[in-house]
Specification:
Helices cover 67% and strands 0% of the residues. By secondary structure, the chain is mostly helical. The longest helix is centred in the middle third of the chain and has 26 residues, at 24-49.
Length: 87
């Protein structure tokens, strides 16, 4: 394509792009609530699994639960900072 053809090519986005039809602060709260709720249930599941007798738990499972516990604080901090920071 030459320059003249490129300059003539324009896209009309007036009918496509516009104002969002949802409440952004409410959507942020709902998303944060869903993610934090999922993490909470993950913690509950891991806590419940800690009562399983040691003969059924492998070293790999112990390492996995330790890694999940260690990664929860940065994930929660990131979510709270991103969704509730001042715009």
């Amino acid at each position: 394509m030459n320059q003249e053809e490129l300059q003539e090519f324009k896209v009309n986005l007036d009918g496509i792009v516009g104002e969002p039809s949802f409440n952004m602060p409410q959507a942020k709260l709902e998303l944060a609530r869903a993610v934090l709720g999922g993490l909470f249930f993950l913690i509950i599941l891991i806590f419940a699994c800690s009562f399983i007798p040691d003969c059924f738990v492998t070293e790999r499972a112990k390492k996995l639960s330790e890694n999940i516990y260690q990664s929860l604080v940065p994930i929660v901090s990131m979510i709270l900072g991103y969704y509730f920071a001042k715009d």
